[in-house]
Amino acid sequence: MKNKILLLPLLFAGFLSHYTMADGKAAKAHEHAAEEKQGMHDGAMKKHEDSGHEDSGHEESGHKESGGHDDGGGHEHDGGGSPVGMPANASDATKVIKVTTLDSMRYKFSDDLNLQAGDIVTFIITNKGRIPHEFSIGDAEEQQAHQAMMRSMPNMMHEDGNTVTIKPGKTKSLTWKFASNDQVIFACNIPGHFEAGMFLKTKVAGSNDEQEIKDIIAGIKFGWENGDGKPFRDNFLDFDGARYIESGGQNAGLDSLVTHHVEPEKDALEYLKLDFSDIEINFEGDFAWVIANTAVKGKVKNSDRKFDKTGYQTFLLRKIDGKWKVVHSHSSSRDRKPDSHKH
Ligand SMILES: [Cu+2]
Questions:
Q1: Is the CB of residue 224 less than 8 Å from the CB of residue 262?
Q2: Could you tell me the distance, in angstroms and rounded to a whole number, from the CA of residue 113 to the centre of ligand 1?
Q3: For position 179, what pLDDT does the model report?
Q4: Worst-scoring range by mean pLDDT, 208-217, 221-230, 232-241?
């Protein structure tokens, strides 16, 4: 099932770029109208659209096929299948929301959505209309790709982990686990329906766990930049066998990391600037792994040597007694390429 979901944006990436070029304006007008109706203010949609215009679909699918290299400019389709979450088992649901599909090209939800990352929601969708409707979960880019596909194959009934199609008078259900993403769109992509306003955009709030881990990473940045060991001592799990790896070298044990690496850099470097971006946090129960893009600049005091590197960092964390602790970190970086944004 996952493969199928992942493939859709790739297979129809060509249609997507075509669609955004030809029909972007019309779609945008509808979006504004609908947003006003729903009383929502949201810049996220525009952000997605803009990146959709910049990256041709072909380039994006090329990235993924060649091993998922991503410069952060494009949109990620990770192993989970969708940036807004993944299908889940109904038995794991934490919420049930009833949805009615109407021929007036609207959805009616039984409850306020108030979605938060990690929520597992079973949607029970009943079609009270006289024509089929769809209920599809995705981000702006996924829904646009889906619409393009539906136009090219108007008679296709779409069913996968993200989407159900409901015939008149019938009820179907779909269970979805929401990931943190600025915006999720529920849409009917039967040709003409989305354009007539059959969608709902809503925000998914980040989870507390996610915020806690982002705060830890902000502390790590501060610690490196200021040669301050405290954020490391507070947020790293101190255990025998701990190893922290950076660009081919390692520190064994938390004490070594702080006293042999973090603190001495204050004296060795005139300045250090470290930035984490595109912080991607994945949870599995009380375990989390984080992958972030890194950019590090600095100047060595003795030699006057400057460095300017970009790369990636992985953090592994465990939640222990209600608090997230870093158990491993690994970073790899190389000199910034003159033109680092394109490949
Ligand atoms: Cu519809």
A1: yes
A2: 20
A3: 86
A4: 208-217
d(CA 79, CA 72): 16
Residue 181, pLDDT score: 63
Angle, alpha carbons 6-7-11 (nearest 5°): 145
Centre of ligand 1 to C-alpha 147, Å, is 12
pTM equals: 0.49
- What CA–CA distance (Å, rounded) separates 175 from 123? 6
Could you tell me the distance, in angstroms and rounded to a whole number, from the CA of residue 196 to the centre of ligand 1? 9
CA of 285 to the centre of ligand 1 (A): 36
Ligand 1 midpoint to CA 49 (Å) = 22
**How far, in Å, is the centroid of ligand 1 from the Cα of 175?**
19
CB 313 within 8 A of CB 330: yes
Ligand 1 centre and the CA of 129: distance in Å? Answer: 9
Distance 33 CA to ligand 1 centre (A): 17
198 alpha carbon to ligand 1 midpoint, in Å? 6
- 316 Cβ contact list (under 8 Å, min separation 6): 287, 288, 289, 290, 326, 327, 328, 329
Tokens of 249: 């070298």
Dmax over CA atoms of the chain, in Å, equals 78
Ligand 1 centroid to Cα of residue 169, in Å, is: 13
In this prediction, residue 138 has a pLDDT band, given cuts at 50, 70 and 90, of very high
DSSP secondary structure, 161-191, as one string = TTEEEE-TT-EEEEEEEEPP-SEEEEE--ST
Q: What CA–CA distance (Å, rounded) separates 141 from 267?
A: 48
Spatial CA neighbour of 149 closest among 1, 25, 18, 3: 18
CA 10–ligand 1 middle distance (angstroms): 24
